[in-house]
Design brief:
The chain is of the alpha+beta class. It has two domains: 2-88, Gcn5-related N-acetyltransferase (GNAT) (Aminopeptidase, 3-Layer(aba) Sandwich), CATH 3.40.630.30; 120-284, Gcn5-related N-acetyltransferase (GNAT) (Aminopeptidase, 3-Layer(aba) Sandwich). Helix content is 32%, strand content 31%. It has nine helices and 13 strands. Strand 11 (220-228), helix 8 and strand 12 form a beta-alpha-beta unit. The protein starts with a strand and ends in a 13-residue tail after the last strand.
Length: 302
């Protein structure tokens, strides 16, 4: 068996029967800002794995082994190559209900990964747009108007001045205390930052909260960061940029929006309770490995 990098065009040809729009997105991202690896057995393509830079870590985003090559160590070899070659900690996120959950968890254990905090992932449901409008009419608009009367304003990244953008870029170094690095979203086009759908809540020129949104396709957006200044927690101000982001996305014909929150993040409970009914949810497990430092790591943020 041989593991080697493969360009996106080579992936498209080699794995034509295993491709989906979902896998194509992650393969293209890995080719642009990470590593796209394939495994060959007797010169035949047996599987592939996608891994991309995600701030201060390497995130394994997608993997596939052809059915006839399963249980032959293909996935283990690909995962090990990612772990050995990464200059950053490696992270694997896996839905607890995934059909290959046991296999992935077993491989992570063999390679020395440790399980970190679980994340709750929220995604659109068939009636999300209707539920969103109901929420905004019953509670959301009233809360947002109250925040505006208190002096807060929602500003899209595309309209924000350099001062606000600078505060967002440095959020992991400020009172936000965010463990998530934001600069790469601005600096690397492959991360698909949507400045039009990303919003900041601002008061007197100071950043209070923000939602950072990526747009892999016109109908699919991911709310990558939902962050509030430590000085503004408990104020409810996060709803202002979140409402603008989700409302703008749905108004533009978007169908799938997703965001996630660490299960232990009790500070986000009030926010989660407000918007819980508009989305479906699932629990995702996280596994971490940092061989460059010679040690594993677990909790990475809130």
């Amino acid at each position: 068996m041989i593991t080697e990098t493969i360009p996106y065009t080579g992936y498209c040809f080699a794995f034509m029967g295993q491709r989906t729009a979902f896998s194509d997105h992650f393969a293209k991202e890995a080719d642009a800002c990470g590593k796209l690896l394939c495994a060959r057995v007797d010169d035949k393509f047996a599987g592939y794995i996608c891994a991309a830079r995600n701030g201060r870590e390497t995130l394994v985003t997608y993997a596939c082994t052809r059915p006839e090559y399963r249980r032959q160590g293909i996935f283990t070899a690909l995962m090990n190559e990612i772990a050995e070659s990464s200059e950053m900690p490696v992270k694997v996120s896996l839905p607890a209900a995934h059909e290959f959950h046991a296999t992935v968890a077993d491989v992570c254990g063999k390679l020395g990964f440790v399980r970190g905090e679980d994340i709750i992932v929220y995604t659109s449901r068939a009636d999300t747009e209707t539920r969103w409008h109901m929420f905004m009419e019953s509670r959301g608009k009233r809360i947002c108007e109250m925040l505006k009367r208190r002096g807060y304003a929602a500003v899209s990244f595309s309209d924000a001045g350099s001062g606000i953008i600078g505060q967002i870029r440095d959020a992991d170094r400020s009172d936000f205390g965010s463990p998530f690095e934001t600069r790469s979203y601005f600096d690397e086009p492959s991360r698909k930052l949507s400045r039009e759908l990303s919003f900041a809540a601002v008061k007197n020129g100071e950043l209070a909260a923000y939602t950072l949104v990526t747009l892999p396709s016109p109908e699919k957006c991911f709310i990558e960061h939902i962050a509030v200044s430590s000085k503004k927690r408990g104020s409810g101000v996060i709803l202002l940029p979140f409402a603008e982001a989700v409302g703008s996305f749905l108004a533009g014909g978007g169908k799938l929006a997703a965001y996630s929150v660490y299960e232990s993040n009790t500070a986000a409970n009030a926010f989660r309770e407000k918007v819980a009914d508009i989305s479906s949810q699932r629990t995702t497990e996280n596994y971490y490995l940092d061989r460059m430092k010679g040690k594993n790591y677990g909790k990475q943020g809130t």
